Amino acid sequence: MRKSAWATIFTVCLTAGQTVGFPEQTENPTTEASFLDDAFAEIDSEQYEGRANFRDVPANLTGAHLYRVQLKNNEHKRVFLDLIKTEQIDVWMQSRGKKAKAVFMVLATNVDKVNLRFYEADITLKRLTDNVQKLVDEENPSENVTKLSNSKTGYALTWKAYHKASVIHDFLDNYATNYKDLCTVEKIGNTVEGRPIKMIKISSGGDKKRPAFFIDGGIHAREWISPATVTYIIRELVENRTAYSFADEVDFYIVPLMNVDGYEHSRTRDRLWRKNRAPGALCKGVDLNRNFGYKWGGKGSSSSVCRGNHRGPSAFSEPESQAIRDFILKFDIGTFKAYLTVHSFGQYIMYPWGYDYITPPDGKELQRVGDLAAAAVKKLTNASYKVGSSAKLLYAAAGGSDDWAKAVAEIPYAYTLELRDKGDYGFILPAKFIKPTGLETMAMVQVVAEEMLKAERLKKN
Ligand code: 0X9
Ligand code: ZN
Q1: How confident is the model at residue 14 (pLDDT cuts 50, 70, 90)?
Q2: How far apart (Å, rounded) are the C-alpha atoms in residues 405 and 396?
Q3: SS3 127
Q4: How far apart are CA 65 and CA 70, in angstroms?
Q5: pTM higher than 0.90, yes or no?
Q6: What's the rounded Cα separation, in Å, for the pair 431 and 429?
Q7: CA 420, CA 349: separation in Å to the nearest integer?
């Protein structure tokens, strides 16, 4: 496999025992706040191997509460950290900074204990629901409700419900058949359980060399809004193509559902499953967003197989992450100019680095384009998205597809999108939000594509 120039430089640097590669801006590492940040980043490391977090046994969500909290000072953070370590709470989302926030779930059996602990520490909680199972039951309309669309479009996929993997894949195949000049579908690999990983290329064709744009969805099984939104983008680029002047200038390569096995597991067995379905005697699954091969094994990634952020035995140990790597590296470095990896939730537009609290040399440009995307969304649907580097906004987590895309595949405009919502429903976002989320994500794609094209034109002139 061909190695990029940067990858070679990194290898040389690392053998020399240094951790350089990019000029980096580091935050003061000695403050109390950063001590706590590192504690959060390392929380899932082997020291805290626990039992309640055995995610192979689906949690009983009946009577489970969901809360939002603001961690206003270090004491708040310490209490919160302790509840994570003792596995009394299951964190769905957390952010850093002065207004550090978290959304977390408490199983029915722990509700009283946890409430008491927060009360003693004088921390106010906002309860979002007292029965997570009810959210799950009401999230997705039945197939009967959506069936009618099939006769109109020729495919069963709708944006009124979350659909099974085969319906998503049939939608791609339908486009390959009905839009032969525009769409091609390729199986770029197989999952651990042998399901196909499908990629759709949307391109006006011909020999013209266009900048390429890669989008991955559904790395994390439970983030259903991701594949739903990415298929919405595909539909826009195909059926509503004339609305986007950039569409003919860019070649799109889109994998709407990377973690096919995990998604199916989340649909049928365990709604909150996150990882792939890699086999394991004790626990299954590797977090595919900790398995990519740049700074693999670093902060915020666990070697413990039962953890939600288990990084796997080695970089790219998993067929799902391998498929993405091998597909992208088949092209010359410089072909891809933009990479979006689509997740939920929290409403963030984030750029590298994720592996540590530092930003790449072109961080200002990534911030500028991110700000433009957030402004476009604000205008369109009034939803607010925060923009920044992912480690600084959320937490440090090494092995993400975004960092790999930026550092190794040398894709300049690499972003992670955390879609809706801000935690009212979290991962269990009702299907009625698919359309507005799709609409605003398309606006982000448009801004990134247009700004990337502008930068290309500037380079040429
Ligand atoms: O933790 C993650 O993988 C992402 N958040 S999520 O809630 N969707 O799981 C954030 C990833 C940001 N990027 C990197 N850390 N590289
Ligand atoms: Zn995710």
Answers
A1: very low
A2: 17
A3: strand
A4: 17
A5: yes
A6: 6
A7: 11
User: Which atom of ligand 1 is nearest the CA belonging to 352?
Assistant: 16
H/E element holding 252? strand 251-255
Q: Write down the pLDDT at residue 146.
A: 65
Mean pLDDT of 130-134: 98
Backbone angles phi, psi at 86, to 5 degrees: -85, 5
Which helix (DSSP H) or strand (DSSP E) does residue 264 occupy?
helix 260-268
Active site residue 46: no
Strand ranges in 52-191 using DSSP code E only, listed in sequence order: 65-71, 90-94, 100-106, 125-129, 183-190
| Residue 161 confidence (pLDDT) above 90 | yes
Distances from the Cα of 80 to the Cα of 53, 70, 182, 287, 304, angstroms: 16, 10, 51, 23, 21
| C-beta of residue 34 within 8 angstroms of C-beta of residue 100 | no
Q: What is the pLDDT of residues 421-438, one digit of tens each?
A: 999 999 999 999 999 999
Ligand 1 center to 42 CA (angstroms): 15
Tell how far the Cα of 230 is from the centroid of ligand 2, in angstroms: 14
**Ligand 1, closest atom to CA 399?**
16
Predicted local confidence at residue 28, as pLDDT: 45
- Kindly name the residue from 139, 223, 320, 418 that is annotated as catalytic: 418
Mean pLDDT over 86-104 rounds to 91
Q: What is the 3-state secondary structure (H, E, C) of 361-427?
A: CCHHHHHHHHHHHHHHHHHHHCCCCEEEEHHHHCCCCCCCHHHHHHHCCCCCEEEEEEECCCCCCCC
* Ligand 1: nearest atom to the Cα of 343: 8
Residue ranges around ligand 1 (CB below 6 Å)? 93, 220, 223, 289, 343, 350, 354, 390, 394, 397, 400, 402-403, 416, 418
Contact 351, 411 (CB under 8 A): no
